Amino acid sequence: MLDRFLGLISRDLAMDLGTANTLVFAKGEGVVCSEPSVVAVQDGVRGSQKVLCVGREAKEMLGRTPANIRAIRPIRDGVIADFEVTEAMLRYFIRKVHDRKTFVRPRIIIAVPSNITPVEKRAVKESAESAGAREVYLIEEPVASAIGAGLPVTEPSGNMIVDIGGGTTEVAVISLGGIVQSRSARVAGDKLDDAIVSHVKKKYNLLIGEQTAEQVKIEIGSAYPDDDHLEMEVKGRDLIDGVPKTILVNADEIREALTEPLAAMVEAVLMTLEKAPPELSADIVDRGIVLAGGGAMLRNLPALLREKTGLPVILAENPMQSVVLGAGKALDELETFRDVLSH
């Protein structure tokens, strides 16, 4: 009874604590915040560090800071790499969206990778509790993503989701609210960026930053050939002369550079399909594979997966927000989805 009353007067939240971006859903309001998972810290005496800014402002500092200031991404490959900085980041997002006039602390659902260890789960929960959560539930990212993409996850039928984030690609076959078969590959958006940095360095002796690589991926990156002959100017530092330089790259060479990380993603999908129970496989043939996550927005990725699997491949209506929308739906309908949450 008390819990229900507290639920009425607090502003409960759902969070997609991603490697690249953190999204926050407020009960009854929808997605209220979407910012990069980046924290700028200033190193002090005796190893102390002071948080300067979080989110968009901190991301703009990546690769541009003096020696005593660092722009950190505390979530690496989908898990917490820096406990203290993650806690500061969580506190920032909770305070940003939680109404301070509401004295009751929020109940929070946080989406986590399916292969997260018990130690990592505890770290996420403790971080959220220290940052001001009253109660913390965890939901596996593929399940949240499938709910957010509108798949009937609680029904006795096979639903296949491929969620490509910044740090991990989560592939899962879901039935009756649970993951029947899954695979998590630590190859996703970040590895695509790294492949572009490596290609430009190797071919042009030019060093570019991760933000530039991300921009190249968004503007001319693709997973499968098409008739668009896109080109883009790229600025960086010449490794031979040490001076700033501009080059022209095209979509064909960038697609070639992305071959290896894309092959690892495709392999994760094929291996999950291979191990799925036959009855659920039959459902997947009918329903197809649903793609979600920011990485799924790479041009022509559905075409590549269609060719490799021979199955229909559909891009979720809102790939970037699928996980947080699914976690938000679980928050709105807690009794319906209680079985897919861990407390």
Describe what you observe in this structure:
By secondary structure, the chain is α+β, with helices and mostly antiparallel strands. The protein folds into 4 domains: 114 residues, Nucleotidyltransferase, domain 5 (2-Layer Sandwich); 35 residues, no CATH class; 95 residues, ATPase, nucleotide binding domain (Nucleotidyltransferase, domain 5), CATH 3.30.420; 71 residues, ATPase, substrate binding domain, subdomain 4 (Actin, Chain A, domain 4, Alpha-Beta Complex), CATH 3.90.640. The protein contains 13 helices and 19 strands. The strands form 5 sheets. A 6-stranded mixed β-sheet has the order 3-2-1-9-10-19, sandwiched between helices. A 5-stranded mixed β-sheet has the order 13-12-11-17-18, sandwiched between helices. Strands 5-4-6 form a 3-stranded antiparallel β-sheet. A hairpin with a 2-residue loop joins strand 7 and strand 8. Helix 3 crosses helix 4, helix 5 packs across helix 12 and helix 6 crosses helix 7. The longest helix has 17 residues. The chain is flat. The two termini are 19 Å apart. The mean pLDDT is 89.
